[in-house]
Amino acid sequence: MHETGDHNLKIISKNLGLAVLLNIGITLAEAIGGIISGSMALMSDAAHNFSDVISLVISWFANRLIKRDATERQTFGFRRSEILAAFINSATLIFISVVIIVEAILRLLNPVSLSPDIMIWLAITSIIVNGLSALFIRKDSHDNLNMRSAYLHLFGDMLTSVAVLAGGLAIKYLSWFWADSLFSLVIAVYLLCLSWKIVRLSLRIIMQFTPEKIDIKKIAVKIENIPGVKNIHHVHVWQLNEYDMMFEAHIDMSEDIKVSGFESILNEIKTILWENGITHSTIQPEFSVDDKKQIIY
């Protein structure tokens, strides 16, 4: 890995480490405060913060793994580790959101008396802590799915803390004890929608589905228009991670040409693939091979 990339990874690791320490502290504080005050929203926020600690540790570990070089046993290295981390983190947040939704509905049906002062002060503290933690990794989340999932956890907790604060104020000054559960429900549904997008994208990469922006048929037509190319078949396109797209195919040649003659055709094929964002390709040339000539097989 080049020096600049390695430097960026060190910065990401440092920022993740700071976010982990901050979230461990606020998790303990909110869990204790939630038990004392009886606030479900505060306990939900503590659960979110605990999931943050886990997700940030997973993200940190995945970030460390991608620094490792490829070996004979891991020919791609650990370049997909961050995608796996993003999937685990977002799937965990979906599970927690569903649990909170169920609990919020039960509390709406059976409201309980709460202590708003503890809710208010811990919510303010949590907003500050989660806001700072999110700020640490915000820049990295734009271009990295792993960091985006970690950022979503932190941002979601900050929103939940806002809901706890709003609920605490509503209980203290308006005696709206149902507000705690209602705000928790709204935030949980919102997080559920955001998390699903990351789960869907990371799962597509893990399952090696064709990237959404790739049109295999259009690429095939362009390649078959190259002089000397008779047919393209057995095409596979997948993503190794967010940045690296792979392409492999069999190319049926119209003439039995030399390898040196195929090099110019191969360069044209690679140009077409590069224009479509595909950075790595494996092309198998064939002549008079008796096999199925389907694009997808």
Features:
disordered N terminus; Alpha-Beta Plaits; Alpha-lytic protease prodomain-like; 8 helices; 297 residues; mainly alpha; 2 domains; three-stranded mixed β-sheet; 67% helix; elongated
Short synopsis of the structure:
The protein contains eight helices and three strands. By secondary structure, the chain is mainly alpha-helical.
How would you portray this structure in words?
- It is elongated, with a radius of gyration of 26 Å.
- It is built from eight helices and three strands.
- The protein starts with a helix and ends in an 11-residue tail after the last strand.
- Residues 1-11 have low confidence and may be disordered.
- A three-stranded mixed β-sheet has the order 1-2-3, covered by helices on one side.
- It has helices at 3-37, 40-65, 81-109, 116-141, 145-174, 179-206, 216-224, 259-275; strands at residues 229-239, 245-253, 280-286.
- Strand 1 and strand 2 (245-253) form a beta hairpin.
- The longest helix has 35 residues, at 3-37.
- With 297 residues, it is mainly alpha-helical.
- Helix content is 67%, strand content 9%.
- It has two domains: 3-206, Alpha-lytic protease prodomain-like, CATH 1.20.1510.10; 216-286, 2-Layer Sandwich (Alpha-Beta Plaits), CATH 3.30.70.
